[in-house]
Amino acid sequence: MRLKEEVVKVPLNPKDLRNMDIKELKEKLNQLQMDLLRYRVEARMGTLKNTAVIRNTRKDIARILTVLKEKESKSGGKK
Q: Least C-beta-crowded within 10 Å: which of 22, 32, 57, 71?
């Protein structure tokens, strides 16, 4: 019998996000958006066991977008 791998997501730490550069943040954002799409499909099919992962992924995306806006406003304001 094959056991399905459980997905346990730990929320991203904003302090760690602020230490990442813009390219890394955009890659992480893209990865999380793809994960969110997959979780939503699994939820609709009824195969997603932990539905809280959808909410946590959305919050992680919001954290990354916030840090990206902060970094862009800092770099834009120094011109």
A: 22
